[in-house]
Design goal:
Strand order of the largest sheet: 1-9-7-8-5-2-3-4
Number of helices: 14
Number of domains: 1
Order of helices and strands: EHHHEHEHEHHHEEEEHHEHHEHH
CATH architecture: Alpha-Beta Complex
CATH topology: Spore Coat Polysaccharide Biosynthesis Protein SpsA, Chain A
Helix content: 25-40%
Protein name: Alpha 1,4-glycosyltransferase domain-containing protein
Pfam family, one: Gly_transf_sug
Number of strands: 10
Oligomer: single chain
CATH class: Alpha Beta
Distance between the termini: 36 Å
Length: 368
């Protein structure tokens, strides 16, 4: 995929809708891939799987409330035209200032957005307390526990999930919650359409000007083609055919032992196949955005965004980087795994962006 003009423009692709079959959990699915291999697991592993996929028993009220009903009511009552989804698979104690600032920056540039956080831990009294400052300002946000069967219904995700429940899918060494989040984001966008974004972004520009986009994480320096995509921020129409391709790929090639296999590597594999195909006509378009759109720095260099200038030369680099970000970027991925413990220093790029993206601007906080 040529991206010679990545710094300022987009690479567009088209796909044929007719090449995407509809799936039912009651039908046999043919695919160019080998069928998924399901293996019966030990009782201990099955218990570990069920601890992840079942809602927490200490929240019986929320267990009884329908995901579909709550989401439908939320969208209808708020006349939601700009829908945003996040997932949170960790404990509520881990939902800190950085995650809250992601929400803050989203609403700074999209005051009429409707945000749904799909999470067991956030769908609780403590979660409501965390979101209360946003609700008081009339921002539309709700946390809701996932109903996997409903969300995955009528896609290959439902078949995969049935096998997972039966203990016929090896969860692997990678967090099952992380892999369920990878599948949830695809299925939520397929069912509802809108934006999916991780909770470690700073939004710096309106996203509702974008449609059917996914971001490149890296580019080959020689060919100028993208070499890796990422699924941390995606924007797609409801039932976009590329999303069903992603879901099928997840179900048929799931591997719980390879980091990124069911996430960034998955979307990269599928888009590479799609763009290399010669199918044309009846097209559904999508766009691969350059790294500057969402992933302005690679994960190994994210610390550079948090540090204050050391001298005049460093100050010039920071100023130039800020100019580039404000010109070319829509949101900045903070790569939480690498930057979680890094402090935000005064005079840093992150501090500059926080001042422009804050809603509660007089509140003293850190996002480290």
């Amino acid at each position: 995929m040529p991206i010679s003009q990545l710094s300022s423009s987009r690479a567009n692709f088209a796909m044929n809708d007719e090449s995407f079959p509809k799936f039912s959990t009651k039908t046999h699915v043919k695919s160019s891939h080998n069928s998924p291999k399901f293996t019966h697991l030990s009782p201990k592993t099955i218990r570990r799987v069920r601890q992840v996929i079942k809602p927490p028993s200490q929240e019986p009220l929320h267990e009884m409330r329908s995901f579909s009903r709550r989401v439908r009511r939320f969208f209808d009552e708020n006349s939601c035209k700009f829908r945003v989804f996040m997932t949170w698979i960790s404990s509520i104690k881990s939902f800190g200032d950085r995650e809250k600032f992601t929400i803050e920056s989203l609403f700074k540039f999209h005051p009429n957005a409707c945000l749904i956080i799909v999470s067991n831990s956030m769908d609780s009294n403590r979660g409501s307390q965390i979101l209360e400052p946003f609700v008081r300002l009339n921002f539309k946000v709700m946390a809701v526990s996932p109903d996997f069967k409903f969300i995955f219904k009528n896609t290959m995700a439902a078949i995969w999930y049935q096998q997972l429940e039966k203990g016929n899918v090896k969860p692997g060494e990678i967090s099952l919650g992380q892999n369920l989040s990878n599948l949830l984001r695809l299925s939520l966008l397929y069912k509802y359409g809108g934006v999916y974004m991780d909770t470690d972004f700073i939004v710096i520009k309106r996203l509702d000007t974008l449609r059917n986009v996914i971001g490149a994480q890296t580019v080959d320096p020689k060919t100028k083609n993208w070499s890796r995509l990422n699924n941390a921020l995606m924007i797609f129409d409801k039932k976009h055919p590329l999303l069903i391709k992603f879901i099928v790929e997840f179900a048929l090639t799931f591997d719980g032992n390879k980091w990124g296999h069911n996430g960034p590597y998955l979307v990269s594999r599928v888009v590479e196949r799609v763009t290399n195909s010669s199918t044309k006509g009846g097209a559904s378009k999508f766009t691969v955005l350059p790294p500057s759109a969402f992933y302005v720095v690679e994960w190994g260099k994210v610390g550079d965004l948090f540090r204050k200038p050391m001298d005049e030369l460093h100050q010039k680099w920071l100023d130039d980087k800020i100019d580039q970000i404000e010109r070319d970027s829509y949101a900045i991925h903070l790569w939480n795994r690498q930057s979680r413990e890094i402090k935000v220093e005064d005079g840093s790029i992150i501090r500059h962006l926080m001042k422009k993206a804050c809603v509660f601007c007089n509140v003293s906080r850190t996002i480290s």
